[in-house]
Amino acid sequence: MNGRQNGGDARQKWPAHLRHREDGLGTTLLDVRDVSLRFGGLRALSDVSFSVEKGELFSIIGPNGAGKTSLLNCISGRYSPSEGKIFFGGRDITRLKPNRRAAIGIGRTFQNLALFHHMSVLDNIMVGRHHLLKNNFLTGALYWFGGAQKEELEHRRKVEDVIDFLDIQHVRKATAGTLSYGLRKRVELARAVALEPELILLDEPMAGMNLEEKEDMARYIVDLNEEWGMTIIMIEHDMGVVMDISHRVMVLDFGRKIAHGQPADVLADPHVRKAYLGEEDPEIEPATPQALSA
User: In which residue ranges of the chain is CATH 3.40.50.300 found?
Assistant: First the structure.
């Protein structure tokens, strides 16, 4: 039985906030207000505002260099916005450090793999739970007599649930650096899921994958959202996947938000088609042959 089939059983072992997606619908989990980001004279983001509801699968699209990863970095804490505010669960997290954001329930994957290549798959995923450890140095020293051993066993059980869900049992003891690219992407997702986040940020989770790998990854993402109750913000260039699985889509171009809404409405927006597909903007009058030859 694979992870998608036994996902319901594994889900019952996880915290209630990750099991009841329907309870949070209509509740704002993330609120980004007028965020701008500058690197010297370069403006990467300009007054970007949007909100994500609890239980939503929200996608961000746009051409290369549009500011998508910069925006995720602001949400996860790797960058501090030059202007604007970011709220998570009603709390202002604009200046909160990345480790504190992880501790309150924000996880992420990266566009470029960030695994520990010399470590096993199991150990890589265990790293995702470090902020959940409750035992201190003293109880660790008394490992066999105190609660540290019991706590480690509980963490390993949670990690095994994630391994089963993502169908990576066969590589659980393998060194991460020896795996295929598609499997390494799945291991990175597993590490982010092991953190038990309320919000998970996925930066191009299907980049570099073949068709079969993309289909599998799309199923895992949908199941994390619908069955495990995780709110998801995803950057992805495969428009077919984005339109199929997203509840809402936001489009960035040159660091600005140019569209935001239901997938079909966003795809039909002429400004989006110009920015993303290279079509002419209907608000710009085409040049006449006489003007072109002038």
Answer: 28-105+198-294
